Every structure is written in C-alpha cells, then in structure tokens.
Amino acid sequence: VKVGERFYGYYPMGTHLVVSPQRVHEAGFVDGSEHRASLPSVYNYYANTDFDPAIRPDTEALVAIYRPLFATSYLLEQFLADQQFFGASQLLVTSASSKTAQILAVLVAQRKERGEDTPSLIGLTSAKNIELVESLGWFDRAIGYDDLAQVDVDRPTVILDFSGNHATQLGLQEALSTNLAYNCLVGIVDWQHLRGKAPLPDPGTLFFAPEHAETRREQWGARELQARLTEAWAPVMNAIQPHVSMKRHTGFQELETLYKSMLVGKVDPGYGHLVTL
C-alpha cells in the first residue's frame, strides 16, 4: 500500500483511519484489524481507485454516495426476481425518495425495458417529495403517506419497506390483508416511529445485504459477483446522474449540521452531500 494511493471503501467520519492491511494486491486490500474481524467482508475491503474504471473525476461523487447503496438494491432486486416477486402484481416501496429505493426503482424499470414480466412499482413518500418521485420516471405511480387509500389493495402485493414507520406498516397490512404476498424490511429512514401500540400482523422479514452478498458469493463465486455488480452499476449511474445535484461541505461543524438535518428528515432528496474533513 503506497503513499499517495487512493482507496474506495467504508470510512469513519474522521480525518484518519488506522488499518492492518491483509491480502494486499494491486487492486486493493482487506483491513485485518482484530476489532473488525467479525464484520461481513464487504465492510473491510478497500479498492484502489486506479484499478476501478467506474471511479473518474466526473463520477467520483456519485460513486461515493450511491455505490454503497447500490449493492443493497441490486441484491434485493435479484432476490425478488429469483422469487418471481412472490407472485405479486405490485411492489409498494416506502420512503421512495431515498437513494436506495431510487436505485431499486431504476433496476426494476430496466427489467421492464427489457420486456420482462415485472410488477407495477408504486412509490410511497411524503407529500413534499411526491413531485420528485414522479419526475424520476421509474415508478409507475407516487402516493403520499396521507393518501394511502389510493393504494389498490385488491392486488397481490409485496411491501418493500425502507421507512420502518409502524403506522404505515399497520395501515397497509390491515388494508391488504391476505393480498400481502411478502413484507420485506430494508431500512429505517423513519427511525423515530419504528414502534406502535398495536402489534403488526406480519412482522416482516429483514433483508440484510451482507448476508445476501455472502450467499451470492457462494453461488456465483467472488469474481462473478463482482463482475455482475460492475456490469449493472454503469447503467444505473447513467440513469441517476441527471436527477441529483451535488452539495459539498467542509469541516466537522458543517458535517454536524448536515447530519442532524438528515436525522430529522430535512435533507432534500434531490441532492447528494459530500463532506471533506
């Protein structure tokens, strides 16, 4: 690992990271630090940017923001397709404006463009983000959380929950009843409203991307998994680039302000934020 080389990977919100490089090769290395040994391998790998054609000056910001999310969305979309979407004719995506949900929508839309039989994709979002979700062009319809009566509950449905809002889950489950084909828990954007007094009829199944990555690595082999991710990433990046504007921030004070704004849902999803410490 040479002075001046640059590496893509997971870093703490700090100015420095101390690693113990192992399995070093020209394209990257694994951090073998003892306190990280129990983590899924994806969290401990650092890729040399000189050997990654996707990382260029004009795309580096997109890579930094979207690619950690891309793997989750790709693995989720592959899982759903393998399960033939659980026989559903519609997918309900909560927190549709979130970047992970946007990537999933791109992948589903691309499957439709290839002429494959794919369920309708319905984005559920807050009222202030409906216009953005509609403008993306990847969802068949956008519906506000305060207008869930507009959801067609007479169709077999998969819920893809990026929000975690208990009230939204309960309302959808009660309305769908036996038409709920699968309830997939992906994220907790609305972390302040994860619980409610009434228990959920279907607690849902957690989708943990690192576990699915390990399963695919066993099925396909590490090289094939990486090749498929690389092949799928480029068209997703091209689809997303026109829909996001970048904002840059410097220093810990700006980071703290941005982070607190994100926690209370005041960050505009039409922007990507990069912080330099």
Question: Can you give a write-up of this model?
Answer:
With 277 residues, the protein is of the alpha/beta class. The chain has seven helices and twelve strands. The protein has helices at residues 60-82, 99-113, 130-136, 166-176, 209-220, 222-240, 251-263, and strands at 7-8, 21-25, 28-31, 45-48, 90-93, 120-125, 141-144, 157-161, 180-185, 205-206, 245-250, 271-276. Strand 6, helix 3 and strand 7 form a beta-alpha-beta unit. Helix 5 (209-220) packs across helix 6 (222-240). The mean pLDDT is 93.
Q: Determine the strand fraction and express it as a percent band.
A: 15-25%
Order of helix and strand elements from N to C terminus: EEEEHEHEHEEHEEHHEHE
Report the average pLDDT across residues.
93
The end-to-end span amounts to 22 Å
Overall spatial form = globular
The Rg value, from CA coordinates, equals 20 Å
User: What order do the strands of the largest sheet run in, or round the barrel if closed?
Assistant: 7-6-5-8-9-10
* Helical proportion, percent range: 25-40%
- Stretches where pLDDT is under 50 for at least 5 consecutive residues are none
